[in-house]
Amino acid sequence: MSRINSNRKNCIDVFNAFLVALATYAGMFEFPCIKATYDIPNKLISFSKCISSKDYNQWVHFYEDDYLFERIWRNPQNYLDILKRFNGVILPDFSLYRDMPLVMQLWNIYRSRAIGFWLQVNGVKVIPNLRFGDRRTYRICCDGIEKKCVIAIGSHGNLKHVQDREIFLKGLDVVVDRLKPMAIVVYGATPEKYFNKYVDAGIRIIQFDSDFSTSHKEVV
Fold first, then answer.
1. Could you give the count of Cα atoms lying within 13 Å of 88 in the half-sphere of its Cβ?
2. What pLDDT, on a 0 to 100 scale, did the predictor assign at position 12?
3. Most buried of 75, 96, 131, 162 (most Cβ within 10 A)?
């Protein structure tokens, strides 16, 4: 059987196998394992803005359109020194759409974890981002994430429409039940009627407004 992690002469690493050269894996689909973190972000900045930022006292997030950060998968080495300047990184939020074939959803979860593992190996603090596309991904997306640590989710764009909201909230219930996080970093709104039950369960909710809502408030 061929091994993508093998050092083969004249072989171009089109799979970015170097990212997971030292990884251990979890679950049926073998997502790279991410070590627990207990750090709480003080402030967030998007990946596309962090490239030119001089304010390093914040955490980098990827809650933006995929085309703005797809480059970190194509050339991760190009951005390592930049990311190491910041307090830490919330792992990439590659899109998981319900009409995506499951294999594509799995691939995007894998890519996020592979980058996260590699960043940790290189001394960057990371918080795993939990993203679920449809019900099939609810439990799968938790594979490789340690329990009772800090996790992150993006609620922006997931609460407005009924079907999106239902998928998001049920998925979050599954994640919380399985991982029992000590804290959840939320990029976007945290309506009390949906999030109070987590607070009542002793989970700390750290909310950050989305860039869209922040810019809208400034315009208003």
1. 19
2. 84
3. 131
